[in-house]
Please model this.
Amino acid sequence: MDISIVVPLFNEDESLPHLAEWIDRVMAAHGFIYEVIMVDDGSRDRSWAVIEQLRAANPAYKGIKFRRNYGKSAALNVGFGQAQGDVVITMDADLQDSPDEVPELYRMIKEEGYDLVSGWKKVRYDSKIAKNIPSKFFNWTTRRMSGIKLHDFNCGLKAYRNDVVKSIEVYGEMHRYIPVIAKWAGFSRIGEKVVQHRKREFGVTKFGMNRFVNGYLDLMSIMFMSKFGKQPMHFFGLIGSVSLLLGVVALVVVLCLKIAGRMALTNSVWFYLAMFFAVVGLMLFLAGFIGELVCRNSTTRNQYLIEKELL
Ligand code: UDP
Ligand code: MG
Model:
């Protein structure tokens, strides 16, 4: 199979028939062997009925329906698990992403050797205040922190080589950071393609402003996990040591003050600083040890992605 198109959707019944028709048209024009995996993320409208109809008309359509709304990341993750095509394309269901981009994305993966190609909505048709400006800021910070030179991390239209999607796990709200997760897993050939973006014709956006706050917390988690996920003591132990060292310095000052004059220890700010840094330092070491215990028991502690083997 050439292409798997994974479509996460939540209450998109009006868009789906148009999307399917468009995908079929593009696939037929290029003679691709394909499947479309529609992951219904707990829709409460007629989306699932539409998916059943599509399936009845064309067995290339596959559907998975969640019992409730788990979020876009969960939907993508389940779709990735099912995808059989050599190239896996993700696409929003709301017709904002154009299926016309698929052949070129496919070519970039197949011929230019990319692990992942991300769409770039260079010209966007969303509200300026709610989307465009916050997303510029979001992309800038993600670029700085991850070192990946993409303009549009959160674009729903992306293409992957099949083994990339089988090797990564997307959960929570992490779908915005799939390139970061992929890079961390060792897939560093990440490309970008300017894609057409269209106005949402039917329904409404499913993401509000809280996505920005959660987004940054997720980015911090990812960066932390990639650096220290397997050796938490290297993180907590380092700042714990700095704190203990500062505690010792403060203690020395306190002792000098004590020797020099006869003031009560508790009158000196250095006394409190010494206490503070000592307690914080010990707590950080404790956190580090607990982190190490958690890692030791994690089932993924010895899970590596092997690229090639000669056995
Ligand atoms: N989506 C989903 N689960 C959710 C929220 C969104 O599967 O909990 C899907 C949604 O149906 C659409 C895609 O994710 O296919 C992108 O969502 P949306 O268009 O609302 O985001 P926007 O384009 O406004 O950023
Ligand atoms: Mg959209």
About this structure: The chain has a mean pLDDT of 93.
